[in-house]
Design brief:
The complex is a heterodimer. Chain A is mainly alpha-helical. In chain A, 74% of the residues lie in helices and 3% in strands. Chain A is globular. By secondary structure, chain B is mainly alpha-helical. Helices cover 75% and strands 1% of the residues of chain B. Chain B has a two-stranded antiparallel ribbon. In chain B, helix 8 runs antiparallel to helix 9 and helix 16 runs antiparallel to helix 17. Chain B starts with a helix and ends in a 5-residue tail after the last helix. In chain B, 61% of the residues are buried. The chains are: A mainly alpha, B mainly alpha. Chains A and B meet through helix 5, helix 6 and helix 7 of A and helix 20, helix 21, helix 23 and helix 26 of B.
């Protein structure tokens, strides 16, 4: 099996290559073709490597393919990478989405004038490396470094190649995200330093070591909040989503595909990888808060998505809702919930990327406008496009039989077990999802043909972009167990600390410590249920 | 018998009183190289220079006269040789741990590492000044000689172990700098800058001197270690006079390091001084000032740490906030970098506050990082000043990525590094500082550093946006009025700052979008002129690329830099 470093750095290397490869003077006009081909090759090889890694990963094997060398010895920072059930599916998602996005860019640049294509591919591939690094990092400082780093290529990509008021939009996006990231930086350093002080050990940032050195509850709480802000901004979740509307509208299509498909997952993944294992007591302490934030995100995202007319914003706000579900699943602190969340992350990536791509196709057919009022009737002359869109839309609204359904079902099951009231309210989100997804589909594909619309069938290139995404979506719909089975062990160990902390309050100070975990859990649930019953009675 | 003995002893006694202290020339050699080099450069400038000042007035208008004659490069070369010699001597002394000249100077890891940083900064500054108008305007070699003298002062300061030497070093550092700021005699702003720096700097020196006198009055000692032992043995930590002295010393040193609220001179002086001098000042002065703070506070005053540390922590906080907020919305890049340097000083003072070995190392690491980041930034500013008529305004960078990627990349890397983005040395530096702060109970100071970095995004990112996301301003392609063009030759210090320099980048956006045709046109026209001028300034581009590459390299592979600063922390006897 290849070292994970190859997987991480290969895209960046190809990006660099496509930026500096000499192009003969006579071929200057075809510069973008050469650069694009190199980038595409790099992203395809990365996809192949990722599949190799995923196939080679044995469920329940813990961390495998570990690369572990010292990066900065003086600070206890390790260059430690590894694959386990939490990130295996996500690196697959990342490489798949980046490969399709690079493919889409290649096709787009054939038809459009494409200035500075070399720079574009360089930044794009650099972004892929950074995202893969964030998913694979098994050291807190390394994770923070990759997490911050991935913003920079996107900043330049959006700012240089975006549309509309891109400079302002990117500034907003970057400041929002970096404020979160920098808070996380302080929190991460504090985690390492305080852990070493509270346990009298030399400083280290390796996650496995930190997990063995739990912090005091007081430190956990403020550190948790700093991390949570960083991850919630990235998702985005309700109160911290201010950058999203402008940002998504300014992004080039391929960029928004990977940005919403992959980057938002890094935040959710961070909760599972870092927050729950390292700060379990704080996670329990803030469980209700996080669940409420998730709930508001679901309701707010769904309602706003329903009222928007800009197709991109519909997809954007629906992402807020979907990521709300994912947060909900993670903070149910139940195995099913967290597994559902993980499945949901992959699903959402596979759904939202084709939606943004299809929106671009629709806009091309509707005279360049992304407003759904100016679309309509596109399906008549584009049955294949309509079919693909329908598949994706049904997956978005979690049609039973789709993989999203399995994900949301597990999430709600998990929440139902921990906080019943919240689960019941969250069901409304499932209903609303069908409203906005179907509205988007019907208004664009059916209805009266809008005067500006010139419909035509999907091109071969567009089909090539969409096919792998839809295929992956269908695969997961028929066989979600594959993903679930692989991740079960890792998710369980990620939750272990929090679940132990969850039962702790039930142990009275004077109570005998022989109380088993199950008994305590049962007691806790009963108490919670009784409390909720009282609340609902009121 | 006893009389005999006394007679026998008398000559020995006499000899002892007359004999100067033992001078360890090996230990002093870097300093001697610098100061000797200054003399040689000065003389060589007089010998080789073509008439010196006389040619000054012609050179501005006549492009032929502006081209340096073959002999004119000699002083610069000699200055580089002197710096190289000093570097060699420093490396020769590398593992030394000794007090020399009766304990007045300490040659240890800290002093040697700071020497290396100073010499590297000085070499960059000499290269930047190579073609500087000021260097030719002042008689040949004067500028380099002054720079070398100033570096000598800094080197002295960073190894000072005695309050007298401390003051001596500080003055040796400052006085050449007062002259250097004002060296562009034709520019009013340069003169103003020099005068301002002279007045404020003298005030700072006087304050420091007064503080040192009070400390001497209480402890009766000038040696750092003697001061420390006097404080410890006599329990002086609550002595009012000592505390007053410490406060005054703190204020005096803060003037030099431009720590708020003693920073007000910084933006004006930085903006007015010729850019190579600004770069030199920004980097080298800070290195020396922080170096002496480390040694003075963490050695001499370590027993009253509980008194000065909270005060310094508050100063660091204020500095970080004031510097970062002040830099927001500055249209002049040099003013922006000045405020940014104030903020960076605040970060580094945090390392002094911590007063552990880790803190010292983190501070020194950040100083090295600071050298790379600022040299990259200032050299790009300088290059644009010479190429365009827009001076040091943000406008001068518009569309740079398309026009000149070799300048845009270093600047981008420098801005990202200053903001503390990963994969640059700035990230590691900040990480180290926060780590040091958190590990000695100053976690809140780490959070302040982080908050400062957040604010700083508000002014670093627009610079990147200007380079990458805007069109080349049509103005730089030659539509600028003739008067500005003629001044362009002499506009080293941004004296020809046009009126359009102001305004936020957002406001310019519609204008840029409206005239794509103009942008394209200038894009075609620019390369011809651009190539010519980048050939004219290869050394500036070289410094920019080198510093940018170092910023990136040490951000990804920081090991060598960690090894370098490791020795800095160990010599001070801290925990």
């Amino acid at each position: 099996m290849p070292p994970l470093s190859y997987l991480i750095w290969l895209p960046a290397l190809c990006g660099l290559l496509s930026a500096i490869v000499p192009v003969p003077r006579t071929q200057r006009t075809r510069e973008h073709v050469i650069a694009g081909a190199i980038a595409l090759a790099g992203s395809l090889v990365a996809l192949g490597l990722a599949i190799w890694v995923i196939v080679g990963y044995r469920a329940g094997a813990g961390l495998s393919d570990v690369t572990d060398t010292k990066w900065i010895g003086a600070l206890g920072i390790y260059y430690k990478l590894g694959v386990d059930g939490l990130n295996a599916a996500l690196i697959g998602l990342t490489t798949l989405l980046f490969a399709t996005a690079v493919l889409a860019s290649n096709f787009r640049m054939r038809t459009e004038r494409a200035p500075r294509a070399r720079l574009y591919y360089f930044l794009f591939m650099l972004a892929e490396s950074a995202v893969l690094g964030a998913f694979l990092a098994q050291d807190l400082a390394l994770f923070v470094a990759f997490f911050d780093l991935m913003l920079i290529p996107f900043y330049l990509l959006i700012g240089i190649f975006g549309s509309g008021d891109r400079v302002r939009a990117t500034l907003k996006l970057v400041i929002y995200t970096l404020v979160g990231s920098l808070l996380m930086l302080a929190a991460a350093i504090a985690t390492g330093v305080l852990a070493s002080q509270q346990h009298g050990t030399p400083i280290t940032f390796a996650l496995s070591s930190l997990q063995a050195l739990p912090l005091s509850k007081g430190s956990q709480e403020w550190i948790f909040l700093f991390f949570a802000v960083a991850f919630l901004v990235k998702m985005p979740a309700f109160p911290l989503h201010g950058w999203m509307p402008d940002g998504y509208r300014a992004m080039p299509t391929e960029v928004v595909m990977v940005f919403s498909g992959v980057l938002s997952k890094v935040g959710a993944y961070g909760f599972l990888r870092i927050v729950l294992p390292l700060f379990p007591q704080a996670a329990v302490h803030f469980q209700t808060l996080m669940l409420i934030i998730a709930l508001i995100s679901i309701l707010y995202g769904s309602i706003v998505a329903f009222t928007q007319t800009d197709a991109r914003l519909i997809a954007g706000y629906s992402s807020i809702a979907q990521l709300g579900f994912i947060t909900l699943g993670i903070f149910s602190l139940q195995l099913q919930g967290a597994q559902g969340a993980l499945l949901g992350m992959v699903n959402h990536g596979l759904v939202v990327a084709p939606i943004f791509f299809i929106i671009a196709l629709l806009a091309a057919r509707a005279g360049g406008s992304e407003d759904i009022r100016e679309m309509g009737g596109i399906a008549f002359r584009a049955p294949v496009l309509a079919t693909i869109f329908l598949v994706v839309a049904l997956a978005t609204l979690a049609m039973p039989g789709s993989s999203n359904f399995a994900g949301e079902f597990l999430i709600l099951l998990g929440v139902f077990e921990s906080k019943r009231v919240i689960a019941i309210i969250a069901f409304a989100g499932v209903v609303m999802a069908s409203v906005y997804a179907l509205r988007l589909f019907i208004r664009t594909m059916h209805n009266r043909v809008s005067p500006t619309v010139k419909s035509r069938e999907l091109g071969l290139g567009d089909g090539l972009v969409l096919a792998p995404l839809v295929a992956a979506l269908l695969y997961l719909a028929f066989y979600p167990q594959g993903a679930l089975h692989r991740s079960e062990g890792s998710v369980d160990s990620s939750l272990a600390g929090a679940r132990a902390a969850l039962v702790e309050p039930a142990v009275k100070p004077g109570a005998p410590s022989t109380l088993t975990t199950q008994q305590a859990a049962a007691e806790e649930e009963e108490a919670a249920a009784a409390q909720e019953a009282q609340e609902s009675a009121r | 018998m006893s009389g005999l003995a006394s007679i026998a002893h008398a000559p020995a006694l006499l000899l002892a009183t007359l004999k100067g202290p033992h001078v360890d020339f090996a230990g002093l050699s870097p300093l001697l190289a610098l100061l000797g080099g200054a003399v040689v450069v000065l003389v060589a400038g007089l010998v080789c220079g073509p008439g010196g000042r006389a040619s000054y007035s012609d050179s501005a208008s006549d492009p032929a006269a502006a081209r340096p004659s073959p002999g004119a490069a000699v002083p610069g070369l000699l200055a580089l040789v002197a710096l190289g010699a000093a570097l060699g001597m420093t490396i020769w002394q590398w593992n030394a741990q000794k007090s020399i000249v009766s304990g007045a100077l300490r040659i240890d890891g800290l002093a040697l590492v700071l020497n290396v940083i100073l010499i590297a900064g000085g070499a960059c500054a000499v290269l930047l000044a190579w073609r500087s108008h000021a260097a030719r305007g002042a008689a040949q070699g004067e500028m380099y000689a002054l720079m070398l003298t100033s570096i000598g002062g800094m080197s002295l300061l960073s190894s000072a172990q005695n309050t007298i030497i401390l003051f001596l070093g500080l003055e040796l550092l400052s006085i050449p700098l007062y002259v250097l700021c004002a060296i562009e005699r034709s520019s009013e702003r340069s003169l103003e800058s020099g005068l301002k720096y002279l007045i404020i700097g003298s005030l700072g020196s006087a304050t420091l001197l007064y503080g040192l006198a009070l400390v001497y009055g209480v402890t009766g000692a000038t040696d750092f270690s003697a001061i420390a032992s006097a404080i410890a043995s006599r329990g002086l930590s609550n002595d009012t006079m000592l505390l007053g002295g410490i406060a005054l010393c703190l204020a005096g040193l803060c003037f030099k390091a431009s720590v708020a609220p003693f920073h007000q001179w910084t933006p004006d002086v930085y903006e007015g001084a010729p850019t190579p001098i600004t770069a030199f000042m920004a980097v080298a002065t800070k290195v020396a000032a922080l170096g002496v703070m480390l040694r003075f506070f963490d050695v001499a005053l370590i027993d009253v740490q509980s008194v000065w540390a909270p005060a310094l922590a508050v100063l660091a906080t204020v500095t970080i906030i004031v510097g970062n907020v002040g830099a927001l919305g500055q249209a002049s890049l040099k003013r922006m970098l000045a405020y940014s340097s104030v903020a960076q000083a605040g970060y580094m003072v945090a390392g002094v506050v911590v007063s552990t070995q880790l803190g010292v190392r983190a501070t020194v690491f950040y100083l090295a990082a600071y050298l790379f980041m600022n040299m990259a930034a200032f050299s790009v500013v300088l290059a644009r000043e010479r190429e365009t008529s827009l001076g040091d305004s943000l406008e001068a960078l518009s569309g740079l990525a398309r026009e000149k990627p070799l300048l845009a990349w270093p600047m981008t890397i420098a801005m990202l590094a200053l903001a503390g983005i990963p994969a640059t040395v700035g990230f590691i530096g900040k990480f180290y500082l926060i780590d040091a702060a958190a590990s000695n109970g100053y976690t809140w100071l780490g959070v302040v550093i982080v908050v400062g970095s957040m604010i700083s995004l508000g002014y670093y990112l627009p610079v990147i946006a200007a380079m990458w996301m805007r069109e080349v301003p049509a103005i730089s392609a030659g539509t600028w009025p003739l008067s500005a063009l003629t001044r362009r030759g002499g506009g080293g210090a941004g004296g020809s700052l046009p009126a359009i320099a102001g305004g936020s980048p957002e406001l310019d956006e519609p204008a840029g979008a409206d005239q794509p045709a103009a942008g394209e046109g200038s894009g075609d026209a620019a390369p011809a002129g651009a190539d010519a001028s980048s050939r004219a300034n290869p050394e500036v581009v070289f410094v920019a690329l080198l510093a940018g590459a170092a910023t990136l390299f040490f951000g990804i592979i920081p090991g060598p830099l960690f090894d370098l600063v490791h020795s800095a922390g160990s010599g001070l006897g801290l925990f």
